[in-house]
From TrEMBL, chains A, B:
This is Gamma-glutamyl phosphate reductase. Belongs to the gamma-glutamyl phosphate reductase family. It is found in: Cytoplasm. Keywords: Amino-acid biosynthesis, Cytoplasm, NADP, Oxidoreductase, Proline biosynthesis. It comes from the Bacteria. Pfam families: Aldedh.
Length: 420, 420
């Protein structure tokens, strides 16, 4: 048997132990995990220093190096996040529906863990603790396959978490860190369809495509966010401007940042010059259609590629549209099913927008930046699904479970046999 | 562009139209579909006669030929099933949760259709109408890829359904029947990950494996049912015998039939001889462990392959176990996550069984044959999922939708900018 299969099978066995844990045990385990991260602070930071040194030697710098970096305050933040997850409601065992059938059968729908979740991610070592904690709180075991840049940090974090498991006599394989980071090993992991119940890739487009291409296990993609703001003819202009600036500039590098502004032609003459001025003061580069460029100077021509782009930068695509229908058509063509916003004072326009747009999150008069598990009340998130199956949008602990059926009877049979 | 991609894109466009339909329009559409099936009865039966003739010429006979056969009463049954689906509650638009955030945002979880569903199935032409009706009621468009034996029947049924679409000015591509049944075309369909939201394979193991191997779109498997009955030491023997006979003999060829009997050693001496006698009178062949064979004559030796088998026939595997834990271990090793039953009068044993078994449906003192969407109150089912993601167990209309987020505000931003 291959090494990765052996590891995954041990994780599957551990998932059976996780399935049986009650809420209080899981909470205590998570608190002990947080304490272990703090107790092993020096070892984790030393491992991280080694990763940083190797990354620097490879020429990695800027935002990527920053994502890799841990320090005392970031590590304290990771422990705090694990404790917050321990305080979430336990989705496992939740009875979502109950029905008594005419024949007397009591039918319940009850949430159970998915089983074994494989997280595939890149450079950020905090995901190792975050993802493990959220998967465990939902009763799952987890296989973690992080990026090579963070390997020593991830190993030190996993090692700390394991000390908490030993204390509770839970198999450490419930959190299995893959140290063999060859691509062919990842492919093998993604094809263990008798073991892995779900793979969640989190990272750049290249990683997501690789996972989707090679996986034979179910995948929930956390794909790009090409988020739109449509400023309707009836919009409150000051409100719309606030949403625009917050959406584009408050954190341009994240998936819930705005990438495209659509403006109704009846408000464009008034709104667009103001908007462009404010955005340019914030350092935003604008790329627009001909109509927008005729209204305001300083907008470069936009191509279809710009409308399809997740810039993750201070760049915004702009288009003036004839009406709500044209805005909807644009989003249907160029959107990525992540988050779209309408600014309007017209209830009927809001209703039509919500009805026609199939994205995971649709906002009326609120910033796209709220498209986040914490902000929407999930407590914590493992990511934002753009797969329209199982979970769509921010995924919390509940999205790491599934409903099954429990049926209680007193001897009911489907075809009674008279002879018995 | 390939022909299959062109067809699938038209289906995706139609899914946008389906998404926007209100409940009453969908119900009227389904009633018109049922009426069209009746109106085109002669054409459908003539097409079916052609399929039957070709199948007979190819040497197909018995149960498989019977599954392919339509007649007036079966066709009337198909129309009735479509009308019943029209009467189901509409899952689309259902608000499953509502939360007001501290900042005043109103957050709703609302069900929307999945989009485009590809049904991959085998010889039964009734699936063409059934699956189309259930997918449409949940607001989806559907791509149907049936078996070659039923092609003319399926074409005639799809043609009848399309007349109802034209009446409502809904694109007929909302129900797209694939007539090119080459394997490479099916592979291409299963890899249209920008178009197809879900593939559901229904059929034999070969088909399921083929789809799982080649799909790059999400798949929910309707895999085999190796269903177990565990007769606990405290079971009511008459009750357990009823469950056993119903589970094994009432319809042995379906996935919710029993395949394995596990008997607690403390009740085996009394229960097993009675059970074997009744089963043998029903024509059931028994294959058992050494302990069962020592207790009763006429049981052939069982292998591990027998314990893993979905016999779909009048064959039952038998094993005497030391206790509940050994029964659970057996099911964890050999089960297929479909349906398991415990017969017991001991609440604690029932609780432990339910807690340890992760199958989609767990029954206490009820027949495995109730593991069915209609019997469990879903109204109709598209199948029984053995994939522990999205839907697990019988899948009704609601399982063909997903929850998304709708957020309403009055201008909330995440990082207020003082300068605006």
């Amino acid at each position: 048997m291959s090494e990765i299969r052996t590891l995954a099978l041990a994780c599957k066995d551990a998932s059976q132990a996780m399935f049986a844990l009650d809420t209080e045990t899981k909470r205590t385990l998570l608190h002990d995990m947080a304490a272990a991260l703090e107790a092993q602070r020096d070892a984790i930071l030393a491992a991280n220093a080694r990763d940083l040194q190797q990354a620097t030697a490879k020429g990695i710098q800027g935002a990527m190096l920053d994502r890799l970096r841990l320090n005392e305050s970031r590590l304290a933040g990771i422990a705090t996040a694990v404790r917050e997850i321990a305080g979430l409601p336990d989705p496992v065992g939740l009875v979502t529906r109950h029905d008594t059938r005419p024949n007397g059968l009591e039918v319940e729908r009850v949430r159970i863990p998915l089983g074994v979740i494989a997280m595939i991610y890149e450079a950020r070592p905090n995901v190792t603790a975050d993802a493990a904690a959220l998967c465990l709180m939902a009763g799952n075991a987890v296989i973690l396959r992080g990026g090579s840049e963070a390997l020593h940090s991830n190993m030190a974090i996993a090692s700390a978490l394991h000390t908490a498991f030993e204390k509770h006599d839970i198999p450490t394989a419930a959190v299995t860190l893959i140290e063999d980071l060859r691509r062919e090993t990842m492919v093998e992991l993604l094809q263990l369809s008798d073991i892995v119940d779900l793979a969640i890739p989190r990272g750049g487009e290249g990683l997501i495509h690789f996972v989707a291409e090679h996986a034979r296990v179910p995948v929930i993609k956390h794909y790009k966010g090409v988020c739109h703001l449509f400023v309707d003819a009836s919009a409150d202009e000051a409100l719309a401007l606030n949403l625009l600036v917050d959406g584009k500039t408050s954190r341009p590098g994240v998936c819930n940042a705005l990438e495209t502004l659509l403006v109704h032609r009846d408000i464009a003459t008034s709104f667009l010059p103001r908007a462009v001025q404010v955005l340019q003061e914030c350092g935003v580069e604008l790329r627009g259609c001909e109509r927008s460029r005729a209204l305001v100077e300083g907008i470069r021509p936009a191509t279809d590629d710009d409308y399809a782009a997740e810039f993750l930068d201070l760049i915004l695509a702009v288009r003036v549209v004839d009406d709500l229908g044209m805005a909807i058509g644009h989003i249907q063509r160029f959107g990525s099913d992540h988050t779209e916003v309408i600014a309007t004072r017209n209830d009927e326009a809001a209703r039509r927008f919500v009805q026609a747009i199939r994205s995971a999150v649709v906002m009326v008069n609120a910033s796209s930046r709220f498209s986040d598990g914490g902000e929407l009340g999930l407590g914590a998130e493992i990511g934002i699904s753009t797969t329209r199956l199982h979970a769509y949008g921010p995924m919390g602990a509940e999205a790491l479970t599934v409903e099954r059926f429990i049926v209680r009877g007193d001897g009911q049979v489907r075809h009674p046999q008279s002879k018995l």
